[in-house]
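Justification of computing resources. Each target in the renewal requires a structure prediction run like the one illustrated here; the chain below, 972 residues long, is used simply to show the kind of job we budget for.
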Amino acid sequence: MMKGSTERRGDGYPSTVLGRISLGVVTGLEKAFYRYGYSIAQHPAVFMVICLTITCAFSVGLMKFTVEERPFKLWIPQDSDFIRVMEWQKENFPAQFRAHIALYEAENILEKTVLMEMLRVHEAVANATTSKATWPSVCAKLPSIPDSIFSRKKRSTRSQKHVADQEFLLRNRVKRSQDDKGIDWSTILSRGQYCGFLEDISQECMEHSILEVWGYDKDYISTLTQEEIIEDINYVEKSAVFGFPTNFSTMLGGIERDSEGLVRRAKAARQLWVTRINFTAVKTGDFADDAGTGMEVDTASFGWEKELIKAVLNESERPDNISLYLMAASSFGMISGDTILGDAQYLGVGFMVVFIYVQVMLGKFNLVEQRPILSLMGLMCVGMSIFVSYGICSMFGVPFGPVNNVLPFLLLGLGIDDMFVIMQAWNNLTPREKTLTLSERIGCALKHAGVSITVTSLTDFAAFAIGSSTVLPALRSFCLFAAVGIAAVYFFQATFFVAWFSLDQRRLEDNRQGIFWCWKVKNWTPNQCSQKDLCQTFFSEFYAKYLLKGPIKIVILVVTAALLSVSAWGLSNLRQEFNPIWFLPQSSYLFKFFMKHEQYFSTDGEEGIIYFGNTNLTAELPNIEALMMRLNESEYISEVDSWYLKYKKYWEKQGYLVPDPEETEEEFLDQLSMFLHSPSGSRYRAKNFLFNSTFGCTEPATQVLASSVEYKHHIMSDSQEEIRAMDELKHIVGTSNISGYVQPFARAYSGWETNKIIERELYHNMGLAMLVVLLVTLLLIANVSASLMVLLCVVLTLVDVAALMHWWGLTIDTVSCIDLVLAIGLCVDYAAHVAHTFMIKVGSRDQRAKQAVATIGPAVLNGGFSTFLAFVFLANSDSHVFSSFFKIFFGVVLYGLYHGLVFLPVLLSLVGPAAYPSAGSSPSHHPHEVEDLCPQSAQPPGCIHQDYPEEVPLGSKANTTADTEQSNHCGE
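Resulting structure tokens:
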């Protein structure tokens, strides 16, 4: 006898501790479920009302139902550096500006037709209007600083001359190109003179594109030749609108250059609009929450952004050879909000198809034995569990995230399984049990089925309960919703469905029609065709017979080893990567924008900001300079845009020492004010500083409350390099010895910080889930060897699924982390069925393996198919959540069935453990038999030791109908 077998003493009681625990638990459950099923059958209406009352009571919690759309509240640990810095920034240095980007794509962007289309969109945005806002009222503005104090160097002034001579235009272009080197009049004129001129300078709305080369002058642009466009793009170095030095080639993508490095063609161009948040309105409560960015935006600006989206995406006048893609600041939040409850059509179609499938499997194709109402009530249990899950979680303040959209499909699959377990137990009642009253028969059926659905529901519940301990909010939310939903569907199937089943069985035994219960079919007898089970015939007479032949065993072992080797290679190449953009529908305009932006502007590294708060800038200038030097020396930083470096260059050109150890704070603030009003420093004034109060050009700057420096990373090759870059930058900033609050921040760090911990979270959750599965399996099967074989099948399935993820283009992210944890709870069922059935069979290993496959094979196959059917329609979804769910669970079903129905029987036939000592000794001595289940008042002879068939492995999850259930029927 192998170690771990459930041996019995002479009195039939197991001698091992494991066997005693297993017997005690299963015996207690069986007694409880018998009494529970008996009571339900006696008073079905009472239990129906109880279930409906519970559903209604918990559904009240839906009044507090909240949808969480903010990415930083879904995918990032709430104790992370990113969240802490973001909260500080929101409180101490709130972002004032919102960017909106259009991306144009054409065979050659540098053609007049494309420029005219960009100009048309420019005018459409400028004319976009709501009842509360216009473009001039919401736009962020910058001073239009002149190159000359006597004239504006703007194209529009030239167009007013009505010059038609091309030679004269070329001469003016060359002259302008030379003048574009510009003069900084703030360093030449006296401060009073320069500031006097600044007071008369107009403020222009912030819009940046290659059209700035020509000052958005429609008349002038319409006269340009192809050669002039290319020449201006290459040689113009300043914006004709703002006077800032500008490298216009950075606004182009897909650039083709000549041998001299000059731009000749480009396939894409960006156009940027910048709006400013009205904080006065926000402080008075007149604001909207932008879920995508987490900003509080005044309602006037937020409403205008919707008009911008309409204006830019309007294709009615756009030439066919030009494509446009848009990302407005509010796009992510708007699309996420529209999508988070989307794809409802898949759920509706799924329920309809599953209903047909359940009706086919639960009933038979004749007037009386069909069970459409019972099938509908079984699916209603799933709907009720959804309401309970959403209601309870909402009641306790758990938000609903985008991953939770797959929960109805999950509960649908599990609910189908539980229905089939109950029906399998009913159809497998022994002839003696079938002579009992209906209430007693239902009690005996639930006695068997209750253990099965309890064990598997407990396994799934435990897996999700463990998952809810994660630091990832989206994963925690889903696990909590799923855990409650699994408990609810378990309760409703064992109660509401059983109550309806008792009524439906009374109807059937009274020969009443399956749909119209009041119609009694007289002289009815079932046709023989509807009683056949082709699936059972296939497994008994063909599959089990040939599977365990010697050559087939060798082939299966070789195939399994080869599959494991190939899958191990695929697993080693599985990337760890997370990107919130994946949660956008692939058909959305925003997702298309990100894809095109990645295609044409992939050379742009991720941008970041270093925030300085409560810092004495005068005293810390040397440390700030040292920090800038270390940033420039970092292998992960490609560019540093620092006000300090420009400030240093500005004053050193004038002969000043920067930093000057003798400089007082008052002197520094005065020089800072002058710099921030100069052409080279004015763009930093609003963007990179927060002052105690406003100040003029002739006045010293007021106290600096916060400031910032911008930087840009190099392009990273993978997530591991991104994590190293982020950690190094944090180390550089953390060791800068600058007083006050100094922290780096980048939007990309939200994903990078998630990538840093998600692999650890995955292995932690999967390890705990597999430990729970092993313990439950040990308790159920009561044999160490068999339990370890089941666990081996689970591990092999997960390795194969992980490899399939790599080949299917998936990565380790929050969604796949959820799916893999769930996969453990599901794929264990396939192997546990076969292993447990093998333990209760007698004979040689080959004979027992054949009997196990023939007995439980149809149930396992049907269970896998029912799970697959629940989510097969998600294959057409363009949602990352749904498509990932389909791909992973396709692998779970495919590989789970292979290891459970193909590999495990072969393994058991070779090295399987010995059967239970009581196996085959007597039909009434089942390994987990329960005595005295029938009520004494109605106990028929032999009820104490009832003759239960060994084909129903108690405590395992049979996912479909019984061996006697008809999987293939003919109509009357």
